[in-house]
């Protein structure tokens, strides 16, 4: 541990933010690499006298911050950590950084099924870091879940995240494309969730460099119209869902109506397009018959 005066640290922090970036990203760096929590940061301003202790020196922290600013390298990858809901998740460039808007999926599930009294069997397709499945496994401890991903590296990260986040054993991970590893669960699933790759090809080419240059293309690109994977998930869902089972999909901001039509075509009912906190139709949900 390295000792430094609070005044020197606060001056350094102000200097880093003057270069660019945002408070939240710097706070993530200071927490995950420097060993200073958000709570500690807030208390420093109240009592700027005395010293604090850092896990890494200011020169090292500044070098990471400069890499983030100069190369648009996502701070989550540089730190190896992303905070999502109340989870602290390991992330590498093998998985998508979980987004704040995706947090609402857990709230949608709670609205449909109520609180943790429910015993559900849920599946997540394309789990990445495991964020959604882990949050559901914790929110519904009496339930069982299965999560799939096409990338074995992603599944290793998701498995590690689950072990670190929970003492439970109600979530299992399977390697394979969408539904393919779940053949044994046909007709048994109460709820399926997916935040699949849904960026259309033309849009992908114009993504900001912090996304396009660093995050896995396989987790973003959804074919020419962005609906390639969503189409496949919806078409096969009736084989795996129980009657009256739910499907929840995250989609691109302008795809809600198209996804709704795909659900209607595949005999889903109770279809709704739900908005995220920005008022964008981010989620499309439906019930199988």
Instruction: Based on Cα principal axes, name the global outline.
Output: elongated
Q: CATH H level of the largest domain: which superfamily?
A: Vaccinia Virus protein VP39
Model regions low in confidence, pLDDT < 50 over at least 5 residues: none
Secondary-structure element pattern, one letter each:
EHHHEHHEEHEHEHEEHHHEHEE
Return the structural class.
alpha/beta
Mean pLDDT: 93
| DSSP strand content | 15-25%
Q: Mind telling me which CATH architecture of the largest domain this is?
A: 3-Layer(aba) Sandwich
What fold name stands as the CATH topology of the largest domain? Rossmann fold
The tally of strands reads 11
CATH class of the largest domain: Alpha Beta
Number of helices: 12
Total number of domains:
2
Distance between the termini: 60 Å
Order of strands across the biggest sheet? 7-6-5-8-9-11-10
Give the radius of gyration.
21 Å
Question: Main β-sheet, in a few words?
Answer: 7 strands, mixed
Percent helix: 40-55%
Describe it.
Helices cover 41% and strands 22% of the residues. The protein is α/β, with parallel strands linked by helices. The protein folds into two domains: 2-71; 94-288, Vaccinia Virus protein VP39 (Rossmann fold). A seven-stranded mixed beta sheet has the order 7-6-5-8-9-11-10, sandwiched between helices. The longest helix is centred in the first third of the chain and has 14 residues, at 58-71. The radius of gyration is 21 Å and the shape is elongated.
């Amino acid at each position: 541990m390295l000792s430094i005066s609070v005044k020197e640290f606060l001056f350094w922090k102000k200097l880093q933010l003057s270069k660019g970036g945002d408070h939240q990203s710097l706070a993530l760096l200071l927490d995950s690499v420097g060993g200073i929590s958000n709570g500690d940061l807030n208390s420093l301003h109240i009592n700027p006298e005395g010293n604090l202790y850092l896990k890494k020196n200011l020169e090292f922290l500044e070098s990471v911050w400069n890499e983030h600013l100069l190369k648009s390298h996502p701070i989550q990858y540089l730190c190896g950590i992303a905070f999502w809901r109340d989870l602290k998740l390991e992330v590498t460039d093998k998985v998508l950084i979980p987004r704040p808007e995706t947090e609402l999926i857990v709230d949608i599930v709670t609205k449909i099924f109520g609180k943790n009294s429910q015993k559900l069997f849920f599946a997540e397709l394309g789990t990445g870091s495991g964020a959604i499945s882990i949050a559901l496994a914790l929110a519904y401890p009496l339930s069982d879940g299965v999560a799939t991903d096409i990338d074995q590296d992603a599944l290793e990260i998701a498995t590690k995240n689950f072990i670190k986040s929970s003492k439970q054993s109600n979530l299992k991970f399977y390697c394979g494309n969408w539904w393919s590893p779940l053949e044994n669960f046909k007709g048994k699933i109460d709820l399926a969730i997916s935040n699949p790759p849904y960026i259309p090809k033309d849009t992908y080419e114009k993504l900001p460099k912090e996304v396009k240059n660093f995050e896995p293309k396989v987790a973003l690109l959804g074919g020419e119209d962005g609906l390639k994977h969503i189409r496949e998930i919806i078409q096969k869902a009736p084989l795996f869902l129980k009657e009256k089972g739910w499907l929840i999909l995250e989609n691109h901001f302008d795809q809600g109506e198209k996804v709704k039509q795909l659900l209607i075509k595949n005999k889903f009912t109770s279809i709704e397009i739900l908005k995220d906190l920005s008022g964008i139709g981010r989620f499309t949900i439906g019930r199988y018959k």
